[in-house]
From TrEMBL:
Residues 1-20 form the signal peptide. It comes from Apteryx owenii (Little spotted kiwi). SMART domains: SH3. SUPFAM superfamilies: SH3-domain. GO terms for biological process: extracellular matrix organization. This is SH3 domain-containing protein. Keywords: SH3 domain, Signal.
Length: 130
């Protein structure tokens, strides 16, 4: 519980302020390939997680999460991935960040052998003004 609270506080502190703003969570990330297009591992959510903004994904305990990258350095508490939806789900799959403490890896698919610099598009969050 303390780890989830710590991750939630970090999300609030790192949340973007203005529409279209991006804030870097980390300078480096580890991936399976140069484009981070292949999942590194499969994980299961050990707790519910509510995304604080559009850079993150939300999930419920027990959902399967595919991990595509792991942030390095100051952002090492966060991974990026996609939640596996139900077969008849109307919600499209999307990629986003989540605290690594909210999941348990169950299967390694590929080695995270490629370490890359992050760029502004890794953390871009477009919020429409209404």
């Amino acid at each position: 519980m303390a780890a989830a609270l710590r991750a939630a506080l970090l999300c609030v502190l790192l949340a973007p302020g203005a529409a279209g703003q991006h804030d870097s969570l980390a300078e480096r990330k580890a991936c399976a390939d140069e484009e981070c297009s292949y999942p590194i591992s499969v994980a299961v959510a050990v707790s519910d997680y509510v995304a604080p903004d559009c850079r993150f994904i939300h999930f419920q305990r027990g959902q399967v999460v595919y991990v595509f990258s792991k942030l390095r350095g100051r952002g090492k508490l966060f991974w990026s991935g996609s939640v596996r939806g139900d077969y008849y789900s109307e919600q499209p799959a999307r990629l986003g960040y989540f605290p690594s403490s909210a999941v348990r890896e169950t299967r390694t698919l590929r080695r995270a052998a490629v370490e890359l610099d992050t760029d502004e598009w890794d953390f871009y969050c477009h919020r429409s003004r209404r």
